[in-house]
Write a structure and sequence with these properties.
Length: 341
């Protein structure tokens, strides 16, 4: 019977190998003569971990040849169908059985040898964001400090672990609001606050992140996370004017509305609630300020005829119900005359 030069072989081939690419050369010899020494080679089985692997049976072929009596005959094992070679599918490689048979009549004699084919990794998989584990929308308070966690990030790469092809780095590559607000955390797998946040300036930001593997050439994958910046009571009320001027007839009685002072607040919800009042200076002023509406209201009898009570000027404030920051403005009220004498 013909015999292979060795009972087992080992070879490596890149997983992106093309058809006809050489895997290895095997050799066999037969000491018989004539047709009994004509050798024919074939790939008879391909397995993965001792189990049939379906399509991988099409992966390899071997040349069929013959040679001189007693001389070793070489045959090349080549890639037959490179599309089925996938290291990620067959990470432990493929076990190929090659056979050599003589041309004996009436009975051919055959011998087999094993070839352990390792599929070497190439960078054929881009990073993949786990869209289930990586949130699409998150909320962070505008008072959050540097390094505050915004979102955990999960990204994988199907290439061979421990190789550059599977090493993925992350970077913030876009911010619809302002560059530098967000960055990648020290762990390399989190989105964190990297700069001061201001909800009044930017309430919703779309942050783009890019995952890049270490292959050459490298692959990239991008994902967007929407960051909603929640409000913090960091903006004091501001009067719409520094001076409010009003006129009112001395005939108007108590509870008459003189005018309205108005302030605005850039905060939201109850943090934008404004309370108004008068700054006490010890005088008895014939007006009060409604704390909710800002209406300046007559509180005592008005008198134009007395020069000392004809013009009033006093300070008013606007502030949050529970917060100290406030704004101050001046109210000037002129009492107009009626024919009452």
């Amino acid at each position: 019977a013909p015999l292979f030069a060795q009972p087992s072989y080992a070879a490596a081939v890149p997983e992106n190998a093309a058809a006809s690419d050489l895997v290895l050369v095997v050799s066999a010899a037969d000491t018989d003569e004539g047709a009994n020494a004509d050798l024919t080679f074939a790939v008879v089985d391909v397995r993965y971990r001792d189990a049939p692997c379906g399509a991988c049976n099409e992966a390899f072929a071997i040349g069929s040849t013959s040679g001189a009596v007693g001389a070793a005959v070489q045959a090349a094992v080549v890639v037959s169908n490179g599309t089925v070679l996938d290291r990620e599918r067959w990470p432990l490689g493929l076990d190929v059985t090659v056979q050599v048979c003589d041309g004996g009549v009436p009975q051919r004699l055959c011998t087999e040898a094993s070839v352990a084919v390792t599929l070497s990794d190439v960078n054929d998989n881009p990073p993949a964001w786990d869209v289930q584990a990586t949130p699409h929308t998150v909320v962070v308070g505008e008072e959050a400090g540097l390094g505050t966690l915004v979102a955990g990030l999960v990204v994988t790469d199907a290439d061979e672990a421990g190789t550059a092809n599977a090493e993925v780095s992350l970077a913030v590559t876009g911010d619809s609001c302002r560059p530098g607000q967000f960055g990648i955390g020290a762990d390399g797998r989190s989105l964190v606050v990297a700069g001061g946040l201001d909800r009044e300036a930017h309430a919703v930001c779309v942050v783009e992140m890019t995952a890049t593997d270490g292959g050459s050439p490298s692959f990239q994958a991008r994902i967007n996370v929407t960051v909603e910046v929640s409000d913090h009571n960091d903006s004091p009320p501001v009067f719409v004017a520094r001076l409010f001027r009003f006129n009112i007839s001395e005939a108007q009685g108590n509870a008459s509305v003189v005018g309205i002072i108005t302030a605005t607040d850039r905060d939201t919800a109850d943090r934008a609630d404004i309370r108004y009042g008068m700054v006490s200076d010890g005088r008895r002023v014939p007006f009060t300020v409604d704390p909710s509406s800002g209406e300046v209201v007559v509180a005592n009898q008005l008198d134009h005829d007395n020069p000392s009570t004809r013009n009033w000027q006093f300070l008013v404030f606007a502030r949050h119900p529970v917060a100290a920051p406030q704004d101050i403005a001046t109210v000037s009220v002129t009492i107009t005359d009626v024919n009452d004498n």
